[in-house]
Write a structure and sequence with these properties.
This protein is of the alpha/beta class. The protein is built from 21 helices and 14 strands. This is AAA+ ATPase domain-containing protein.
């Protein structure tokens, strides 16, 4: 299907069309100095194509989060571990959800690591989820620098490698890179060279003008035109737009960035005795306490997990006929019982293992309101920990053991999305059960991929949490040195009952 989106107008007032299908195959490079209208151009492209293709935006300044209000993009905060970001990116591809990865508030090295982990997560998705995705990276020179800067070499290699994979190898995986940069000279050449479509805006430095002219196939004497371009005016070239350099004017957008260009504002009228106002301290300044804004200390994960392990089973939860009236008070014990019952109902669905945490969380909140559970809603972090405990399937006797408390303490060394898998394996070791199969581990992680389950075991082993080995018959054993326990041998290729089709079960 050929879809041409309206990017603005060309000379003569004709619409400037961009072929999205062609763009997905040939990628795009946008260049222009600060204030030339690059962000406006990207926003126009994203708004016009939102209904046609999944979008992922790497946003270092948090300017594109406003797309979530009108177009439903999920906003992902970059202040997470690399494992969490990779897991979120995998689920983004699996469920075909458009998102904005906002890196606002992170320093440059943290931004590079976060973007690298997220892009690698998109790139490493299983083949069955290689749907087309428009991956927009603003300020690309930050993530693919031409030379090393003040950041560590490890962070630079990670980010540059992810950007190179996006632009060089991403097409076969459905990833179409759209990169924007202020300066071509600062952008790694092997990343810029993979784009076949170009939109060049206002540029002043000779070296950048020369590179822009080379990319557009123009004579270097014509490069001076880039200095005269107005804000929002670009020269387009490429199979998705025009086979010859074509000046275009980018059209209007429906959303706006949270920040804007500085505007002139007149100073207030001159105040009398202005020096006294500035240099004379207010008497209250000496008595006013210094307020340091800091987030409240989070509840320790080990405490939450230990409490959840001993939570009341769903069978003991009160019936709906005992639900309190809308204005009645509810005790902490009763509230906990109702929350446990709602969680058990949700996780009782066989398909719950393959739904994202955000989908399960929304369903949980709706059902909790239907049960008229009073008090503030459960935070997302605590909900994820409850899900991890529930999926481990630990019984009351094991939950009360000293070994399980040690397992809970060890689980905080992995990210939230991996705790369910870790606790599943720990429970099997403490109860001397067979090692879970690849399919069972994959289901605990929320995927059908047995290969990903084996990668999780390898990750736990790299962290020094487990030791994986096989017996003479080829069955797998997972040992926990800190627990002094190990699973019984188990067949990694065993097909669980939940995974069998009706014909296979017969």
């Amino acid at each position: 299907m050929k879809v041409g989106i309206d990017m603005g107008t060309v000379q003569g007032g004709q619409p400037a069309k961009l072929d999205i299908e062609e763009l997905l195959a040939t990628r795009l490079l946008v260049q222009g100095n600060s204030g030339s209208g690059k962000s406006h151009l990207l926003r126009r492209l994203l708004e016009q194509s939102a209904q046609w293709v999944q979008q992922v935006i790497i946003d270092p300044e948090g300017d594109f989060v406003t797309l979530s209000d009108k177009y439903g993009h999920v906003v992902v905060d970059g202040e997470r571990t690399e494992a969490e970001l990779a897991g979120i990116a995998d689920r983004i591809r699996r469920h075909r959800v458009s998102c904005v990865l906002t890196l606002e508030g992170l320093d440059v090295e943290q931004q590079m690591r976060a973007a690298g982990a997220f892009l690698n997560g998109l790139f490493d998705a299983d083949r069955e989820f290689w749907y087309p995705v428009l991956v927009v990276v603003d300020e690309a020179q930050m993530f693919a620098p031409a030379v090393g800067g003040d950041v560590s070499e490890d962070a630079r290699k990670m980010s540059l490698g992810a950007m190179t994979n996006l632009m060089c190898r991403g097409r076969k995986r459905g990833l179409a890179g759209v990169i924007a940069t202020q300066r071509l000279a600062k952008l790694a050449k092997n990343v810029a060279a993979e784009a076949s479509n170009f939109l060049m805006g206002r540029t002043f430095l000779d070296i950048d003008m020369a590179r822009a002219a080379d990319l557009l196939g123009m004579d270097r004497r014509q490069a001076e035109m880039f200095r005269d371009l107005q804000r929002g005016n670009f020269v387009a070239l490429g199979p998705a737009m025009s086979r010859r350099p074509l000046p275009i004017v980018i059209g209007a957008v429906e959303t706006s960035a949270r920040s804007s260009s500085p505007m002139l504002m007149p100073l207030p009228d001159a105040l009398p005795d202005v020096e006294d106002l500035i240099f004379t301290p207010d008497p209250e300044e000496f008595t006013r306490p210094i307020v340091r804004r800091a987030p409240p200390a989070p509840r320790p994960t080990t405490d939450i997990l230990a409490e959840l392990s001993r939570s009341t089973p769903a069978s003991l939860a009160p019936s709906s006929s005992e639900a309190p009236s809308r204005g009645a008070e509810m005790s902490a014990e009763e509230r906990e019982d109702r929350l446990s019952a709602v969680l058990s109902e949700i996780l009782g669905d066989p398909q719950a293992a393959y739904r994202t945490d955000s989908v399960l969380y929304q369903e949980f909140l709706v059902r909790a309101r239907m049960r008229r559970v009073s008090g503030p809603p459960m935070p997302m972090g605590e909900f994820r920990r409850r899900v991890a405990i529930a999926r481990a399937g630990v019984d009351e006797e094991t939950a009360a053991s000293e070994g399980w408390q040690t397992a809970l303490s060890l689980s905080v060394r992995v990210s939230d999305d991996l705790q369910g898998v870790f606790l599943l394996l720990a429970k099997a070791a403490l109860r001397h059960e067979e090692c879970p199969s690849d399919q069972r581990i994959a289901r605990a992680y929320g995927t059908h991929s047995a290969r990903r389950a084996r990668r999780l075991l390898g990750y736990f082993e790299e962290q020094g949490l487990v030791v994986v080995h096989t017996d003479f018959s080829g069955k797998r054993i997972v040992a926990f040195p800190d627990l002094e326990a190990e699973t019984q041998p188990g067949d990694p290729n065993q097909v669980d009952a939940e995974e069998r089709t009706p014909s296979a079960a017969e």
